[in-house]
Amino acid sequence: MAETTTQLTGAGIGQGVALGRVLRMSDPLPEPAETPSTRTPDEEKARVAEAVAAVADDLRSRAAKVTGVAADVLEAQSMMAEDSTLADDVATRIDGGTTAERAVFEGFAVFRDMLIDLGGYMGERATDLDDVAQRVIAALAGRPAPGVPESDEPYVLVAHDLAPADTALLDLTKVLGLVTREGGPTSHTAILAREKAIVAIVGVAGADSLADGTEVIVDAASGTVTVAPADDQRADAQHRIEERAAALAGGLEPGALADGTPIPLLANLGSADGTQKALDAGAEGVGLFRTEFLFLDQRMAPTVEQQREHYIALLSAFPGKKVVVRVLDAGADKPLAFLNDAHEDNPALGLRGLRALRANEDLLREQLTALAEADAATEADLWVMAPMVSTVEETRYFVELATGYGLKTVGVMVEVPSAALLADRVLQTAAFASIGTNDLTQYTLAADRLLGSVAGFQDPWHPAVLRLIGEVGAAGAAHGKPVGICGEAAADPLLAVVLVGLGATTLSMSPAALADVRLSLTRYTLDQARALAEVALAADGAAEARDAVRAAATPPPQ
Ligand code: PEP
Ligand code: MG
């Protein structure tokens, strides 16, 4: 009998499509029994010490084989394994007569629950700790660590959740896609899938019911897993896989819409070290250079010379190309004691961004000096902007100050609703606007971007956010001034089209997102982008806007 097609949904990571047969991760180990130990406490403690050392060694050697986030996560896990507070907790349980296996199980569970209670980013780390516990228990039992199955054929990996240790070493020539029951958009599985460009959907409620050998289509863009697809669905998936592969392979064309309208695609960078990655991904320049890393974790501001050298390193990588540098954005999620050590109950509404710089004008002047000197020494087209500008007066202040240092193109970030609402006046003075959708969403929806409990509000698809972006786009068009987007929203390929429809003239994102956004833009004309923007603006909420635009955009025009 033919299987019936069903669809499961979850949070898609990226835009890819995968088609293949399911192979499941091996199931977690059974819970260790509560029976009292027949060994002495010292014997049990010695077993734990040996198992922990073996697991930590294994994690460290895995870390040494990879780079980037994967290496950091594995290192962090090896440290979790050897954490002394955890070891004390386990030892106390063993002293009470518990077996090593049970003591590790219970001890790690207590810490895991504490992480979950903390929520947000810390809560997402609970999976990492669970994985370490499973590894230690497996080592105690003399069993192999639970992990990724072996296969000669490519497959779609289905797991309850994927431990970083497994994700880091996935054989990407075999794993077509990844589906997990647990995990959210900020879980390590999601972060690593994004970094490795694995087609993934996390948080899929029915994932545990997927059996080995079942054929599935994993469509990250729509967040759907189609189980036992029909022939036409299979053919459509195949077509999209080939189209995307061709676009990604060829893909260093400048960003443009289907009608040829250029939409330069730029990179967000956090230090000059990332320039090569950006160039390799076809970035046409830099749309947001965050200068914070030069200052954060320091006891004093870097000198003009130190800053100048770093800016020269950045600008030299982009001769003749646009590089937008943001002056220091400290405060709130990026605290900096030497700038502002006053206690603030609501730091996101406090002395941050340009406000903090203005209160420490010497520091701002030094940064502008270093930027002007680097500009004079290099061939890039340097643009400079201020973060967290909320008034026309602040715009005038910054533009006058920066142009006084000989900087030619001086603009502001629009991250606060007041600046978006008065964009027509802001852009009378500023040479350009760059919309920071992360903060603009936080301030429009009044939801702290760091707070897990209100994470649902942090969605730039919200029509209120889009309406504000439309205000800035219209003001840019009226004044003939560029309007860029440099928040995470620009990295969402479909939302990127909507943003262009609202008047964005450039899009800036982490280099890994450039290829999918480039492909998405080629599917729509400017008129179609504007029509999709209208569809989004007419919705009542973020989810409705996203769904309505998806429906209106499918099938994409050929
Ligand atoms: C933003 O707020 O969207 C932005 C780009 O700035 P950051 O994320 O650094 O605050
Ligand atoms: Mg911001």
Describe the structure.
The mean pLDDT is 90. The protein has helices at 41-65, 68-81, 84-95, 100-118, 120-124, 126-140, 164-168, 188-196, 231-250, 275-280, 304-316, 354-359, 361-377, 392-404, 417-421, 423-429, 437-444, 463-479, 493-501, 514-521, 526-537, 542-553; strands at 6-9, 11-13, 17-24, 155-159, 175-180, 199-202, 215-219, 224-227, 265-269, 285-290, 322-326, 381-386, 409-414, 433-435, 483-485, 506-509. With 558 residues, it is of the alpha/beta class. It binds phosphoenolpyruvate (PEP) and magnesium ion. Phosphoenolpyruvate is lined by residues 288, 290, 329, 415, 436-439, 486-487. The site of phosphoenolpyruvate has 10 residues, from strand 10 and helix 17.
